[in-house]
């Protein structure tokens, strides 16, 4: 039943205490009385007007002003004017800081979704109130607050206690009893609700209230025919009096009738609902449903009828509603351009109240999205913000535009718009946080996302709180807290096994298990994911990672099962080949060459193995295996075949580099140089480019050693110097500094060599201070050469410099170096009679 069980204190009070509004009069007492009656009748718009008038007529009478201000704020709150209610409460408190505003502060807290604060307020008020009536009001409000949050057990307990403890206040006992029945209906406990109804505890005093609740029970049980047989008598008794519950019953019954295609009954009920409506919004809703029923056969014809009606009656007071209905009907049959034209008639007419124009803009934006007209959608969302007259309206505009921006993947704009709403405390704050959180994650602004997720976890909306639990785990993962993130993912899966986020949580938990080297758990969870989500795009990846985890767990059976499942369920997936190639790579690292060759043989059976990417990888792996088995000539043949058939492929540069290394190992540096230069041509950038340039320099250096051609030495020194100055890899810098120093020594540039070696020492110390272990081999060699160069001068000053170099090296506390610095240091001290500083 649409909106049937959305209840507030005043809505239920309207059901219990219905009365008519009297004729308007212009004195404070009469205006106040009319306001009170309007509230009792659920007519909050008129109540606001009456209380405003009473407030203005209060004069200097502080008691009257206080009473009217509180009631006006409460009426504003019922019409949705939260800001106005807060403003009046603030003014009341500034005038009467020691005086109670009754239930109003708690009601405002509820409107702000500060439910915990509201409940504490009502509990405190109930406990401290000297007036039994006020105490009952507070306890009743507490129960309704919990009912509003769907805390049915708590609400039922409150109502039962209120009824039991107030036998001497029969009106409150009756109200609590009937509201308890209503709560049972709302919670779905129809059996208990029926049992209480049958007790007839207050039926004699309130027979009409019982009949209404019985009608509600029938609708909850979808016993429409029984409901409709009793409805005419109930509707006739009510006459034209506004009645919230009867309105809800009529509209809910009409929706059931329409769903059952009982259109005559639906029309009757909607007309009754329109009569019982207590405000314009309810009347518009009834009229909209009525038009939908009338237009069920041909919505466009209904829209044409609305257009003709407006041509005859251009000043009709329902003109806006009819325009909107017509637009909606047109949109329902995808006549989008005509629908947008009607919506823009509303947005472009400044005589129409702002709220209605904003509503039309919202719907126009949605229609424009459906029509594929983003420029119109964006214009309408901007309209919502620019035309807003109240903070709440502006917040709504920001929220809707932000949500639209999120769907359009404009995450930066979405985050900017939604943050304003999330920080507002409005009733859209949680919904805004939900999209804001996702936007920040997409933008990789994880630190900003953390407090948003924590706030969203407290949302009364379960889907929002659930999503926040998931994102809490995800943010822990992004922050590098792998073990804690995995624990949170697993907790999430236990708490929310059927959540839309559960597949992602399971996959992430498995990945983290793999990262944490909990391989048996990773295997189990990857298989579980693939089994539960066979149609997911991530299912092949899960099996691929199950293969990896199975291998690392040294579980050959699970490794094989993962590959077999991939081949069986996803034969066309590229992951099938990739899994065998990866397994071959693992086996190569383990020196299981026969096992690796068996995997490569399986890959070669696939038609896709003939693709350049796979074929080149196969050749490269064969070359690796041959090289590791010391079959260098076979390895070179595979590499040369790869360079001949697939030189531009991803493995081309690596193949040339490997071929160069083979030639260098054979001492054929000129052939090696050719391969290295080709490798640099094929891969001028990337992870192997620096390595290749270093190998070119090594080849030039070795050729110089054979020919003493200074041109080769100069070229080697130039490359080493460039790598020493500009490499992003600290270890490459250390190695290059040492080799550059050796080149300088061969060129008799002693000072340049010494500067290179000593720079190497200082760089090693800096790396160690930054937590990076320097390469012990190149560091010790550089330090040794620096000491030897200093000692060649044979002066005490150069000896002291040599001792300083030894000191710098010893501070590094490296192990595994072959140079005997202790002996050299002792000889220096003895020869030059020096002491360490």
UniProtKB/TrEMBL annotation:
A Pfam family hit: TPR_16
InterPro entries linked: CellSynth/LPSAsmb/PSIAsmb, SecYEG/CpoB_TPR, TPR-like_helical_dom_sf, TPR_rpt
Domain of life where this protein originates: Bacteria
First and last residue of the signal peptide: 1-25
Keywords: Repeat, Signal, TPR repeat
Keyword flag Metal-binding: no
Positions of TPR repeats: 28-61, 653-686
Residues annotated as domain Ancillary SecYEG translocon subunit/Cell division coordinator CpoB TPR: 537-690
Protein name: Tetratricopeptide repeat protein
Organism: Victivallis vadensis
Lineage: Bacteria, Pseudomonadati, Lentisphaerota, Lentisphaeria, Victivallales
């Amino acid at each position: 039943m649409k909106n049937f069980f959305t209840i507030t204190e005043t809505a239920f009070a309207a059901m219990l205490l219905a009365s008519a509004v009297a004729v308007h009069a212009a004195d404070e007492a009469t205006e106040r009385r009319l306001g009170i009656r309007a509230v009792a009748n659920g007519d909050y718009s008129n109540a606001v007007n009456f209380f405003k008038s009473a407030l203005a007529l209060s004069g200097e009478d502080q008691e009257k002003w206080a009473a009217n201000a509180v009631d006006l704020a409460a009426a504003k709150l019922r019409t949705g004017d939260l800001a106005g209610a807060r403003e009046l409460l603030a003014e009341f408190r500034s005038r009467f800081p020691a005086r109670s505003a009754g239930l109003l502060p708690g009601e405002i807290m509820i409107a702000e979704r500060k439910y915990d604060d509201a409940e504490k307020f009502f509990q405190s008020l109930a406990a401290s109130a000297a007036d039994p009536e006020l105490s009952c009001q507070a306890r009743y409000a507490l129960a309704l607050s919990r009912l509003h949050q769907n805390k049915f057990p708590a609400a039922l307990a409150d109502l039962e206690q209120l009824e039991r403890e107030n036998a001497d206040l029969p009106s409150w006992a009756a109200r609590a009893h009937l509201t308890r029945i209503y709560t049972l209906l709302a919670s779905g406990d129809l059996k208990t609700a029926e049992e209480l109804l049958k007790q007839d505890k207050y039926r004699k005093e309130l027979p009409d209230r019982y009949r209404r609740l019985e009608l509600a029970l029938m609708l909850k049980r979808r016993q429409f025919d029984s409901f409709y047989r009793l409805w005419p008598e109930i509707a006739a008794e009510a006459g034209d009096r506004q009645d919230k519950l009867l309105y809800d019953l009529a509209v809910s019954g009409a929706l059931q009738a329409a769903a059952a295609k009982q259109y005559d009954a639906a029309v009757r009920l909607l007309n009754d609902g329109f009569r019982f409506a207590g405000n314009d919004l309810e009347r518009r809703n009834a009229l909209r449903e009525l038009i939908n029923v009338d237009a069920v056969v041909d919505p466009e014809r209904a829209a044409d009828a609305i257009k003709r009606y407006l041509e005859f009656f251009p000043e009709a007071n329902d003109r806006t509603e009819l325009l909107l209905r017509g637009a909606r009907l047109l949109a329902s049959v995808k006549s989008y351009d005509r629908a947008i034209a009607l919506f823009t008639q509303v947005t472009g007419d400044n005589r129409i109240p702002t709220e209605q124009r904003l509503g039309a803009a919202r719907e126009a934006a949605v229609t424009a999205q459906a029509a594929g007209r983003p420029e119109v959608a964006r214009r309408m969302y901007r309209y919502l913000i620019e035309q807003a007259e109240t903070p709440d309206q502006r917040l709504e505009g920001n929220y809707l535009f932000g949500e639209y921006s999120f769907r359009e993947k404009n995450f930066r704009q979405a985050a900017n718009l939604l943050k304003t709403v999330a920080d507002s405390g409005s009733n859209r704050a949680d919904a805004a946080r939900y999209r804001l959180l996702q936007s920040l994650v997409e933008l990789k602004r994880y630190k900003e996302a953390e407090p948003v997720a924590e706030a969203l976890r407290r949302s009364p909306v379960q889907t929002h709180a659930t999503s926040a639990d998931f994102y809490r785990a995800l943010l822990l993962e992004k922050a590098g807290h792998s073990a804690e993130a995995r624990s949170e993912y697993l907790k999430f899966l236990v708490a929310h096994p059927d959540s839309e986020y559960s597949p992602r949580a399971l996959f992430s938990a498995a990945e983290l298990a793999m990262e944490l080297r909990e391989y048996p758990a990773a295997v189990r969870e990857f298989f579980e994911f693939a089994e539960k989500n066979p149609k997911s795009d991530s299912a092949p990846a899960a099996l691929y990672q199950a293969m990896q985890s199975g291998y690392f767990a040294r579980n050959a059976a699970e490794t094989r099962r993962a590959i077999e499942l991939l081949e069986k369920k996803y034969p066309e997936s590229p992951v099938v080949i990739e899994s065998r190639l990866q397994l071959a790579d693992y086996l190569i690292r383990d020196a299981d060459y026969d096992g690796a060759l068996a995997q490569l043989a399986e890959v070669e059976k696939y038609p896709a193995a003939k693709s350049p990417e796979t074929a080149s990888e196969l050749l490269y792996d064969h070359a690796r295996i041959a090289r590791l088995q010391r079959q260098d000539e076979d390895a070179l043949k595979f590499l040369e075949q790869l360079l001949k058939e697939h030189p531009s492929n991803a493995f081309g540069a690596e193949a040339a580099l490997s071929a160069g290394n083979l030639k260098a190992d054979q001492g054929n540096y000129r052939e090696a140089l050719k391969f290295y230069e080709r490798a640099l041509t094929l891969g001028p950038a990337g992870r192997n480019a620096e390595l290749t340039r270093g190998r070119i320099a090594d080849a030039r250096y070795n050729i110089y050693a054979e020919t003493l051609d200074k041109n080769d030495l100069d070229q080697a020194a130039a490359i080493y110097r460039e790598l020493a100055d500009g490499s992003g890899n600290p270890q490459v810098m250390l190695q290059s500094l040492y080799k550059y120093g050796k080149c300088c020594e061969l060129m008799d540039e002693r000072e340049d060599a010494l500067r290179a070696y000593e720079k190497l020492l200082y760089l090693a110390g800096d790396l160690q201070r930054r937590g990076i272990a320097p390469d012990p081999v190149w560091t010790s060699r550089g330090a040794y050469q620096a000491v030897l160069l200093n000692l060649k001068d044979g002066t005490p000053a150069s000896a002291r410099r040599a001792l300083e170099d030894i000191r710098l090296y010893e501070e590094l506390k490296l192990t595994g170096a072959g140079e005997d610095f202790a002996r050299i240091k002792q000889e220096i001290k003895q020869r030059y009679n020096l002491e360490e500083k």
